[in-house]
Amino acid sequence: MSRSVKEGLARARELILSHRRFVILEHEKPDGDCVGSSLALALALEKWGKQALIVSDDPHPVIYDFLPGQEHFTRTGYLGLADFHADVAIFLDCGEPERCGRALPFAQKAKYWVNIDHHVSNTKFGDAVLVDPSAAATGEILWYLFGELGVNIDARIAVCLYVAVLTDTGSFRYENTTPRALRMAADLIEKGARPQEISELVYEAKPLSSVMLLGEALQTLEIHAGGKIACVSVTREMMKKVAATSEDTEGIITYPRSIQGVMVAVQFREADEGVHVSFRTRRAVDASRIAETFGGGGHPRAAGALIKGKTLPEVKTLVLEEVRRVLEQNPDLVVKA
Question: Which residue of 12, 203, 267, 318 has the lowest C-beta tally within 10 Å?
Answer without folding.
Answer: 203
